[in-house]
From TrEMBL:
Its cofactor is heme. Signal peptide: none annotated. It comes from the Eukaryota. This is Cytochrome P450. SUPFAM superfamilies: Cytochrome P450 (SSF48264). One of its GO terms (molecular function) is heme binding. The keyword Transmembrane applies. The chain crosses the membrane at residues 12-32. Heme binds at C423. Keywords: Heme, Iron, Membrane, Metal-binding, Transmembrane, Transmembrane helix. It comes from Lasiosphaeria miniovina.
Length: 486
């Protein structure tokens, strides 16, 4: 061989072919391995892609359409559907019992490890989860949460005043509902509000970091190798974006330190952070180490903000769409005398129409969907399932039928899961949303800003439900707010 004419390296086309061959080979190998090692019998129906790769459902996740896609697959294929070579989805009442019922042994998906740091929310091992609950469940009891009412009332009052200041003009109700949920979480869980209503009305910087953290966590799930690589690129804006995952915890750490500096460890303040720091004197459960307290207050804060904020906004949106129910709710609130009692939660908690409006909104827009629409829009359980009809939760004489209906069990899922993994913040969220609704509906006629609001409120889901336009254009009017039926 003549060393002058021989090519010492692979030519560019040769290199490209080699890379293509390796990529194709790896892809084919993964597909064959997925098919051969799938523990799911080939007779289980589902889309073709679900047989060969788990990446397609992750892409559906990223597009925000998982809940709708899974619901459509069940409508087409029945109660058991393949979503990936190693993932199934179940629908129907029997599945609810088996997965969430008493004695069920199904554990949370490893996907929960993607969301931030390991606290009660992420723990999969039932023993570890039980132990964590033993240490902190007391702070989420109804009695403990009732004590936070003055803090919640203060923030709700600020939200109502802010919306009242824009009376007659279009306002982004989603923004203000999120700000309400943020400040309530700050006051109750971190010992200090975020100041969401101070200044020019822009969201505190925490919110931008939280939004980025969700995207970065999701990206980590889809392509961990890519995130590893991105973390090593010297691009400041990229590193700031990725650092959002840490920011939500450094915020929590700062809040806990500040709290301890101001209040010490044995404060009688009626906040959840005080109780977490003090432990449970009744059972003798010792407090968690400070590092775990930071994780729990941080996790619960981000679990509280979008869930409660979106639910409040969707409820107002639905009431704006259906004035008859708005009127009926107004009549109930006025007849209850709640206003004369300063809208204390006790006077609102059990109002049947208020409850029905909230539950029906959650049925259509479950704030943490996790695929729930496959149950909540099941026509065999809820006739005419896409219709907003709070009447399904009321008997003919207007009393609540929630507790006794056959669908009640499914509905507890919508509200916040069931069994040992049920939502710890249900009471807090219900208090917040009901206080807000009662005061707004009593005082204002809630209307749509225009047809565009429907597009804004189309649902996408990235773990949390997120309105597509990230905005909810409404108008609050205070003229002729009568409770007469038109
Ligand atoms: C309307 C508001 C809310 C809705 C619809 C909601 C819904 C849910 C749902 C469906 C789950 C179960 C998720 C699953 O099975 O993976 C859940 C879990 C959880 N929620 Fe909520 N949530 C709301 C508000 C809150 C608030 C205000 C907090 C905190 C104060 C909170 C804290 C949590 C926590 C810590 C868990 C995990 C519980 C565990 O695994 O032990 N949520 N929530």
């Amino acid at each position: 061989m003549n060393p002058r004419t021989a090519e010492p390296y692979l030519s560019a086309p040769g290199l490209a072919s080699a890379v293509a061959a390796v990529v194709l080979g790896t892809l084919l190998w993964n597909i064959v391995r997925n098919i051969l090692t799938s523990p799911i019998p080939s007779s289980v129906p589902g889309p073709f892609l679900a047989r060969i790769t788990s990446k397609w459902i992750l892409l559906v996740d990223l597009s925000g359409q998982r809940a709708q896609v899974v619901d459509a697959l069940h409508k087409k294929h029945g109660p058991v559907v393949r979503l990936a070579p190693d993932e199934l989805s179940f629908a129907g009442r029997d599945a609810v019992k088996a997965i969430y019922g008493a004695g069920a042994t199904v554990v949370k998906s490893p996907a929960y490890n993607l969301f931030g740091k390991r606290g009660m929310f992420q723990m999969q091992d039932p023993r570890e989860h039980r132990e964590r609950q033993r240490r902190i469940a007391h702070i989420f009891s109804a009695a403990s949460l009732q004590q936070t009412e003055p803090l919640v009332q203060a923030v709700v009052g600020r939200t109502v005043a802010t919306l009242a200041a824009s009376v007659g003009a279009p306002v982004d109700a989603l923004h203000w509902c999120r700000m309400m949920a943020l400040d309530v979480a700050g006051a109750v869980l971190m010992g200090k509000e975020f100041g969401a209503f101070d200044g020019d009305g822009a969201a505190p910087v925490y919110v931008r970091h939280l939004d980025n953290a969700y995207i970065a966590w999701a990206l980590n799930g889809l392509a961990p190798a890519l995130v590893w690589l991105l973390e090593r690129l010297p691009i400041q804006s990229l590193q700031r974006f990725l650092a959002a995952r840490e920011y939500v915890y450094s915020y929590g750490e700062h809040a806990v330190q500040q709290y301890l500096k101001t209040n010490g460890r044995a404060s009688s303040r009626r906040t959840l952070i005080s109780k977490m720091i003090a432990g449970n004197p009744e059972t003798g459960a010792e407090p968690l180490p400070d590092a775990d307290i930071v994780i729990e207050v941080s996790n619960n804060t981000f679990a509280a903000v979008d869930s409660t904020g979106n639910t409040a906004a969707y409820t107002l949106y639905r009431l704006a769409c259906v004035p008859e129910w708005q009127q009926r709710l107004r009549r109930e609130i006025r007849a209850s005398g709640a206003k004369e009692k300063g809208f204390q939660y006790q006077s609102l908690q059990a109002l049947p129409v208020l409850n029905a409006v909230l539950v029906e909104t959650l049925r259509l827009h479950p704030a943490v969907p996790t695929g729930l629409p496959r149950l909540t829009r099941d026509a065999t359980i809820f006739p005419d399932p896409d219709k907003f009809d709070p009447g399904r939760w009321l008997s003919g004489d207007g009393a609540a039928v929630f507790a006794g209906t056959p669908v009640a069990q499914e509905m507890t899922l919508v509200w916040g899961g069931r069994g040992p993994r049920a939502c710890s913040g249900q009471y807090m969220a219900a208090m917040e949303v009901k206080l807000l609704l009662a005061q707004l509906v009593d005082r204002f006629q809630v209307g749509l800003q225009g047809e565009a609001t429907h597009g804004e409120m189309e649902m996408t889901a990235h773990f949390h439900l997120i309105p597509k336009g990230r905005r909810c254009g409404l108008v609050f009017d205070d003229e002729e707010v009568s409770d007469e039926t038109t």
